[in-house]
Amino acid sequence: MTAPGLPARVPYLSVVIEGQDITPWVTSVQVIEDDRLADSTTITVNDPRMIYADALMEGCVAEIDLGYAEPGQHALLLRALITKVELTYPENGVPQVKIKGEDKSIEMGLVEKKKNWTSTTVNAIVRKIAQPYRFADVVAGLSPDPRVTRENQDAKTDLAFLQDLAKKYTAKCFVELDENEREVLYFIPDRRILHLNRADKLVLRYRQGPGSNLMSFSPAFDASYIDRVKEVNDIDDGGRAVNTPPQPPVEVFIWPLAADLGSRASRVDLDRIDALYEVGVQAREKLQQELAKPRPRTGAVAASQQKLDDETGALESRRLGMSATGTTLGSIWMRAKCNVSITGVHERFAGDWYVTGVTHTIDSSGYKTDFKAVR
Description:
The chain is of the alpha+beta class. The chain has helices at residues 122-130, 158-168, 190-193, 261-264, 267-291, 305-311; strands spanning 11-17, 20-21, 26-34, 40-46, 61-68, 74-88, 96-102, 112-121, 137-140, 147-157, 171-177, 183-189, 202-205, 214-221, 230-231, 233-235, 241-243, 295-296, 322-329, 339-343, 351-363, 366-374.
């Protein structure tokens, strides 16, 4: 898929299962990246002669390298454990095989366990759980490292338990390939995610001439999407008062009117726009301050003030209450957990966004990348 005015680019795809290159069989591939879930893939194979399906088995490992054919423009995006093989035998058309798999983190999600973790720290729990899975490295980076008096892993898989810990301590747990294409397990704070090493920030341009690469973009402000701190004022297990620690002032996002608005709007429209903008700024400031106030916490109370301090925090990536979906020309640099800059749209939605999910698709139509983003 190529934008008008840009030179044609040839998509590149390589699918290798247990050392066998099955690329000639493949009809389409999707690689889905998510900032909280295991990365996954769906590989579609048409099987008109009914000769492929019996050799494609669960438990094997698939490597998906995709991008464009130019040097340095494709990469190994995913090494996946095949967990499901689906067959479709249609009334009309040819039989089709769909191979589904997840990244190495799924190995931690196969067996439920019961274990009590006591007198330790969160980083130590992460390293201990990861040890038998033989990751190339484990980056457990909570600092300060929260003390754990007791955490109950009650009939949960290691993956589910780590994801629960990540949610509790405003962190993210995920697997990525490093520069040597080895799997690394990360358990790091949300704020650090925003500054992970990535390619130079991508600029996505909507309808800005031949350099445009943003095909569609659908942003929105959703009051319910602001991640609010849960406020606690109570007594801990020892009878001492515990309170939510002080939080930084609420960030109220107000955008300027476009500098060239006068050249695009009539005098009558411009007067209305100015009047609405002036009233709207005051109304939005009031609304967003109300929406971002801490909400009362219900249920279990922290065992101590230190535990409450460790668990308190709002997600930096969701501080403005905005979410969006979009589609770009295919790009291997577009990855979950990266930042992008959007241009060519209204001022309220222009600027930096944090990408929570990406779907790379190569099929007969070419290569495109769909994404989800928040800020």
